[in-house]
Amino acid sequence: MIVTTFPRPVRVIEHTLIPLHDGTMLAARIWLPEDAEQNPVPAILEYLPYRKRDGTYDRDSLTHPYLAGHGYAGVRVDLRGSGESEGLLFDEYAPQEQDDGLEVIAWLAAQPWCSGVVGMMGISWGGFNGLQIAARRPAALKAVVTICSTDDRYADDAHYMGGTLLTAGLGWGFFFFALMCLPPDPVLVGYRWRAMWLERLENIPLFFETWLRHQRRDAYWKHGSVCEDYAAIQCPVYAVGGWTDGYTNAIPRLLERLKAPRKGLIGPWAHAYPHFAHPGPQIGFLQEMLRWWDYWLKDIDTGVMDEPMLRAWMTDSVKPASRHETLPGRWVAEPSWPPPGITPRRLFLTDLGLRAEAATFTARAVCSPQTVGSCAGEWVPFGRGHDQAGDQGEDDARSLVFDTAPLETPIEMLGAAIATLEVVSDRPVANLAVRLCDLHPGGESLRVSYGVLNLAHRDGHESPALLAVGQRYRVRIRLNDAGAVFPAGHRIRLALSTAYWPIMWPCPEKATLTILAGTLELPVRPPRPSDARLKPLPDPETAAPEKPTVSRRGDLRIERIERIGLESGAKAASRFHVEDDDPLSAVVELRRTDTKSREGWQVRIETQMRLACTRDVFLLQASLRAWEGENEVCHRDWDRAIARDFL
Prior knowledge:
A hairpin with a 2-residue loop joins strand 14 and strand 15. It contains 11 helices and 33 strands. The protein has 3 domains: 276 residues, Alpha/Beta hydrolase fold, catalytic domain (Rossmann fold, 3-Layer(aba) Sandwich); 183 residues, Galactose-binding domain-like (Jelly Rolls), CATH 2.60.120; 95 residues. The protein is an alpha+beta fold.
């Protein structure tokens, strides 16, 4: 990664307030060219609850000064109720958040240093609300870069997948809960910090409870899901993600269904900006964004729209591991989506495994131990640790597997594999996990993609229906999109299981599924000579990093931001447990301690959350305790029983 110098000197407005019509003030940090008042520039907004002061400062330091040095205003705004912003935050992607965002954009466009046009960029939350606010069509918003986001809040977010409950939603909800308990910085807000903090503590909801009360795709999830009306988005969209991340499937859908100008970029990355994401290779993403912003915000013909609609990383086969520094492969490109030249290749379940022709198949039963999934990694890997899917051998051994013969020639796929299965269940609710694996000659099993389905959701997520025990059903499971090479000599494996813990929560009863027939359809993409002629992406450049001083104080990890004299401490623990033969033994327990301090000032927040279940209800417990110095200022407890809804 190259730290670059900039064409224009940069100044920073460390903290400023954006007034809203209801009197609430939102806190912003802004990077500007020094001469922006004399030579106004477009503004690029990143709009998050993740605390501009002490949360995203490290990644902000790499990105926003770079944009400012190249002729833009980089703007980081904390959502209402977060960081140093006033008000209260009650949920993710709420109507209030979008309404506030419209006001922020109008305010930015009216500033003397702004040329009157605005772009939005962001990863995850910022990618979500970039799309959501674009659908509201604010006049000044001219383009969006959305990274690691989704167009469907129910079907393709951390909460539910295929109608199953993801434990990732519990982990995310717990982190979000703890984050929103943190106070504003007294250095910036003065004596009001305590009143603002106590108001947050006394009003913070248990976010996960809200999400768990909406177990099907109802109006709650449709709000903020831009797939409800793609035509509402009329400004250009650049959709970016990585195959290792949990948020990639939206990119092909956006390319296919948006009517506005759009582009897509999918690399090997996990959940991070591509100029510093792992697994590598990283790319010059800031340069790529500048080409996009120059084209749409400055009317400079950079050629960015003359290139293929999608550029994607075709990942070579590697030895499976829970962490990869890089994933070898090559860039390929498609002029449109769905792409021309993709040939569906259908493989049939047979008594000899996966075969190109239909043949005799003897019905097989699958009733998995509840711990199948121990090799799955995390639903949304961040690439910073051992969070990716490892060797699938242990899970394969406890699943129903179907293999091809060794491949005579390589197969490359780009897009979503689809498993179509005919099944019979002995229980009214049953889950099915489908994994697509690359089986190496040495026996290593590399997970290429996977999908899950709550069979009660077989006909859709809005109106689930119980299975009739003993009745034959045909179900279709679309796996996550992937770009991957199966080399000659390797086998393609399809693995089926009725459990996938801890990715998805178990069913109320241990179910046995009988597989009567099935096919696997692969989106095969032949190699093209034109891929080798693609213009190389540049090496990553950034602004100078801001590195904290890291130490330990007991079991707390301490980060000190020298520039502001603030220390942040954190420790976390988690327990995910289920017994092999008892789905009702599933339990997740999460604990966290956070501290903020500087000379003469210290706060500590302790949070806990626990999810368990019976056949009929989820049992959700949580607690919050907060101290200013040695004085406890807040103690709240939650104890909820929430009915299971076909889950």
